[in-house]
Every structure is written in structure tokens, then in C-alpha cells.
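Action item from last meeting closed. Structure (360 res):
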């Protein structure tokens, strides 16, 4: 039985894409082999990777002067790759801190010998807010401005794109990429782990503007060097072939479902329904400021935390899985990425109402 999987990642993927992968798993394109067995340098897989890249470019309307890289190491590797590619030791970069993941990016930049200017830190709001757009000032000498549009753990999301005063804007979009239309041209670098909206864990997609290539520090590992990876079509090393293949299937699914405009409308409706149920109850609560609430990750608490265990056990028995909040936050968290249908959100809302009737 398929369940409604509310995991923050690896996350629920479109059943249509999974079933196609299942059908092709042992004999891909009549080769008599699985896609995980063919050479990444063979014509068939090179064509597969090219299809994934081209479809991604079309869905996101990626400008021609950007490279699309298929890398490994997750967003964590990019915490190091960004300063390695865009700065020299002793230079400064600006960061906005809105939660755990932006905090990790800051720590990695400092470990690279970078002078980090944290131009906003939402600690006073316990990382349940984002800074006001007009409160941000990027230093003139910053090599770039980095932010995390969506903090997966805290369920905090920017409702705007920060102005970066002419320096490259860098974004960790692991939780939001492909969830709605995106103006790629506003950014210098976008990076995202695939395991939420794009595919299985193991693939990281990076979009980087051409003028930012070729600046990597001496000694930068080749697999983290954007220019080296771009020059080899992301095949300097053996790439995560199955993840790239499945990315292509999921991108096809998004296109068939109406593209990013349709995804955005669907995701906004799912989030509005769930937040509406939470706000309409005195049994559940969401800690995030209303203007900073994530469409993708919805944390909530019960009025009596002693009921958390019962809530989770009963939810799982009803096919609603992986609702436990992150250990640093507690409570519950429903991640409602692209593949989560409205029916899944409705089932969660119905269960929440029933649980409240029985325990309120």
C-alpha cells in the first residue's frame, strides 16, 4: 500500500515517474540492461542526461549564459563549493541567517577563511521570521550574498528575492526548486539537493552564471570546481546516473502536469489548506510568522505535547507517515513537496480534526 509520505527528504516522488522507472528497470530502452548498469559515457546515457538538462532549462527558463551542473555531495558540499569558486581567502561575503541550514553555510564559509558578514540574523525571533526586505544592506566589498529561501527544519520561507546591491546572489533552493516559477536571472548561483522535489538522494543540481566560472581557488577539488565540471558536462567523475535518469522522468511529469505555474498554484493551495486547518484550531499551532510560512515544510505543535506519540502512531496507522518534527524543533512537520497530492493534505487535515475531537 502506498502511503502519504510527509518526509522532509528523501521525500515522496511522483508515482507516475516511479512506475515508469519500475517498468524500465531491468531492460532500459531495449538494451537488455538496467539504466544503472549502462556506461555513463555511452550514447544512450549521454542522451538521457542531455534530456534532463534540456527539460530543466525549459521548465525554469534558464538563460543561455548559465551552466547546468549535475553534481554530488548534496547542499552540504555546496556550502564549501560556493566560497571555493567565488572568493579568495580573506575576502568577504554576505550571508543571511534564518535557521539551521543557512547557519551551516555560514560555518563552512568561515572554515574556508572567508570574512563573513551576517547582514541579518533572525535569532531574536527564534528563527521563525525572515528579515524585512528593506532592512538588508549588502556590503560593497562582498563577493556574493547568500541566503536560504526555505529553511526545511523551521518551515521558514522568504516571500521575496533579496536585493544584492549588484553582487552575485547565491541561493540554497533544496526545498523550493521546481515548486513554482523562478526568475533564474536574478541569481549568480542556485544549488539544490534533489531529494525533495527532483529525485532521489545523491544528485545536486547547480545553476551557475558563465561569468562566475573559472575563478576557483588553487587547490579546489576538481569535483567542486564549477568550471571543470561544466567543461566535462558534469562527467569529470562517474555521475549519479540513476538519479539523473529519474530527474528526467520527474521533469517530464512536471511538464505534463502543466509546468511550474501549475505546480505553484497546486502547492499554494495545499499549503493554504493545511495552515487554515491549523489556524482554525486551538489544539494545533504553527510557530512561524504568517509572512514567513513555507509552502513546502509546515511545522505544527499539539496543545499537549504528551500526545505527540499517540498522534504520530495513529497517523502512521492511517497511512500518514514521517510527520515527526526535526529533533531540534520537536512537534510535527508535514513536508508537502510537488509529489504530495491535495488528497494527501486533505487526509492529514481530516485525521487532525478527528484526533482533536477525540483528545481535545
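Sequence:
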Amino acid at each position: 500500500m502506498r502511503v502519504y509520505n510527509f518526509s522532509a527528504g528523501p521525500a515522496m516522488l511522483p508515482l507516475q515517474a516511479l512506475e515508469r522507472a519500475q517498468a524500465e528497470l531491468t531492460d532500459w530502452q531495449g538494451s537488455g540492461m538496467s539504466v544503472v548498469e549502462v556506461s555513463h559515457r555511452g550514447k544512450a546515457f549521454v542522451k538521457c542526461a542531455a534530456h534532463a538538462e534540456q527539460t530543466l532549462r525549459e521548465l525554469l527558463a534558464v538563460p543561455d549564459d548559465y551552466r547546468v551542473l549535475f553534481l554530488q555531495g548534496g547542499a552540504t558540499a555546496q556550502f564549501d563549493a560556493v566560497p571555493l569558486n567565488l572568493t579568495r581567502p580573506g575576502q568577504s561575503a554576505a550571508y543571511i541567517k534564518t535557521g539551521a541550514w543557512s547557519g551551516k553555510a555560514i560555518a563552512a564559509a568561515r572554515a574556508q577563511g572567508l570574512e563573513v558578514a551576517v547582514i541579518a540574523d533572525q535569532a531574536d525571533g527564534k528563527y521563525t521570521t525572515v528579515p524585512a526586505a528593506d532592512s538588508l544592506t549588502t556590503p560593497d566589498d562582498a563577493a556574493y550574498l547568500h541566503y536560504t529561501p526555505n529553511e526545511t527544519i523551521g518551515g521558514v520561507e522568504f516571500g521575496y528575492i533579496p536585493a544584492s546591491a549588484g553582487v552575485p546572489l547565491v541561493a540554497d533552493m533544496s526545498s523550493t526548486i521546481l515548486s513554482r516559477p523562478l526568475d533564474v536571472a536574478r541569481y549568480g548561483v542556485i544549488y539544490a539537493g534533489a531529494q525533495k522535489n527532483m529525485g532521489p538522494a545523491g544528485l545536486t543540481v547547480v545553476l551557475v552564471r558563465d561569468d562566475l566560472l573559472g575563478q576557483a581557488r588553487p587547490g579546489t577539488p576538481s569535483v567542486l570546481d564549477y568550471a571543470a565540471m561544466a567543461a566535462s558536462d558534469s562527467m569529470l567523475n562517474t555521475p549519479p546516473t540513476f538519479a539523473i535518469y529519474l530527474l528526467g522522468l520527474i521533469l517530464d511529469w512536471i511538464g505534463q502536469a502543466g509546468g511550474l505555474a501549475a505546480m505553484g498554484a497546486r502547492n499554494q493551495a495545499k499549503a493554504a489548506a493545511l495552515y487554515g486547518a491549523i489556524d482554525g484550531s486551538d489544539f494545533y499551532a504553527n510557530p512561524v510568522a504568517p509572512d514567513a510560512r513555507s509552502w513546502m515544510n509546515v511545522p505544527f505543535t499539539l496543545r499537549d505535547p504528551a500526545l505527540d506519540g499517540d498522534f504520530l502512531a495513529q497517523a502512521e496507522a492511517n497511512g500518514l507517515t514521517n510527520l515527526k518534527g526535526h529533533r531540534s524543533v520537536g512537534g510535527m512537520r508535514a513536508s508537502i513537496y510537488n509529489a504530495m497530492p491535495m488528497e494527501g493534505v486533505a487526509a492529514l487535515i481530516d485525521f487532525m480534526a478527528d484526533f482533536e475531537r477525540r483528545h481535545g
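Note appended to the action item: The chain has two domains: 15-256, 257-359.
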